[in-house]
Amino acid sequence: MNTTRRDFLKLSTLGAATSVLGFDLAPAYAQLRQLKIARATETRSTCPYCSVSCGVIVYTIGDRAKNVTPQVIHVEGDPDHPINRGTLCPKGASLQQEIFNDRRLMKPQVRRPGADHWEDISWDQAIDEIAHWVKKTRDETFVERDAQGRVVNRCEGIAWTGGCTDTNEFN
Ligand code: SF4
User: Fold this and answer.
1) Which atom of ligand 1 is nearest to the CA of 46?
2) Which of 57, 88, 97, 166 for mutating ligand 1's site (highest number of atoms within 8 Å of CB)?
3) Tens of pLDDT, residues 78-122
4) Mean of the pLDDT values across residues 32-60?
């Protein structure tokens, strides 16, 4: 039987039950997957990115000691979840990156007026500074009535922006 490279890749990708080589590849695929998560703890969770709330399974390894943080080794859609039945959109499929990506911010940062860089600050300092500037800006820009004298009670001096790791609703 003549098999082109394209045929081989196509069949392999589809996980064909019987390979072009004449033997069944399915057990090998199953074993590969099994090895990856064999000793992992399975935790069911919910994708945090949007209100669709797809179910995910987070696989972690660790010795379960209280002072050891388990390491995430794999995240996938939960096939038993009634909302997504194991599927995830591209954003949800990249969920593991929210944990592993070396560009993930672990601390609040601030860029001071005139500065050309961001600096790390503590959570306490961030909350204190945010509270200070929100109160000051609100007091300075609060509008009780519009030009026609109608009561509006609005703050026109503060705007918010969100990012891709915030939920759609938060943004
Ligand atoms: S996987 Fe996609 S659709 Fe599902 S909750 Fe996450 S972001 Fe929303």
Assistant:
1) 5
2) 88
3) 999 999 999 999 999 999 888 888 888 889 999 999 999 999 999
4) 86
Q: Against a cut of 0.70, is the pTM above it?
A: no
Residues 113, 165, 95, 102: what is their CA dihedral angle, to the nearest 10 degrees? 0
**Residues in Cβ contact with 73 at an 8 Å cutoff, skipping those fewer than 6 apart:** 36, 37, 40, 59, 60, 61
- From ligand 1's centre to the CA of 159, what distance in Å? 27
Residue ranges in the chain assigned as alpha helix (H): 5-14, 26-37, 90-93, 96-100, 123-141
Q: What is the pLDDT of residues 116-150, one digit of tens each?
A: 999 999 999 999 999 999 999 999 999 999 999 99
* b/e per residue 98-119 (b: at least 16 CB within 10 A): beeeeeeeeebeeeeeeeeeee
Distance of CA 67 to the CA centre of its chain: 25
Cβ neighbourhood burial of 19 (10 Å; 0-12, 13-18, 19+): middle
The residue whose CA has the least distance to atom 1 of ligand 1 is 92
Judged by average pLDDT, the poorest of 13-22, 41-50, 77-86 is: 13-22
